[in-house]
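Quick one: structure tokens for this chain, please?
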Amino acid sequence: MTSDAKSETAIVGRPPSTAPPPSRAGRNLPAAIAVGVLLGAAVLGSLAFGDGRYFLALVGLAVVLAVWEMRRALAQAGLEVPLIPCVVGAVSMIVSAYVGGGQALAVTFGLSCVAVLLWRVADGVGNAARDIAGGMLVLLYPSFLAGFASLLLAPSDGRLRVIVFLLVTVCSDVGGFAAGVIFGRHPMAPSLSPKKSWEGFVGSVVLCCVAAAVSISLMLGGPWWGGLLVGLAVAVAATLGDLMESSVKRDLGIKDMGNILPGHGGIMDRIDSLVVTAPLVWGLLLVLVPIV
């Protein structure tokens, strides 16, 4: 018998693999939990000390890393996003929003878009339109949207507003993940995110509404029914944020934006829901719990 025949016989006669089937969670769960706890501790620690500058520094670092990940991902589609003006613009938006409010955030975003345009055109006009469009996308998502975290922090009760925002958004991920793993049977958008189910979405809504009603009532003195409204809005926005990032990754042909966070992927994979829900929570809290 030839060596090739022996190899084929060995393959055919090999007993079925006893390796455990892949987890329904679709990720390294212990690593994901450990990283999530560490990130939560870092955020709470940054809010507990100083006057908010440590939290702003943490947000700035996360956004800079997210900009780098987005730029690298867009390069897969042949877009050369100008890095320096995007990074400077991202940091400027975080700082200006905290110091000058929403108007300053909008002005800084506009100036950053102009800076991207001039920087790219200075390198030549070949494919400039595509690169400029990619740069403006990065300035909007995540940089401009992340600026609303600074707006949440700015008032005298800003730390509590930030905690409510983070708590409710994280509950969207936790509720959706847990309910999806346990009860998930009906895919929500199989072409974009096969593991996201309608059962998971229901779990996200329930946990978000409970967390928002309790936290807004106890921490900010707002109406509990307003918390239900915030919870529902966050669950919908966070789910759409996840699907939006999944759509971008599918178009670019990548699985994760990065691999800096074990069990989570990249920074953008972790903050995709946060940057989408930040403007929503900021606006709803302004109505439900006016700034004194």
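Residues 83-122 form the longest helix (40 residues).
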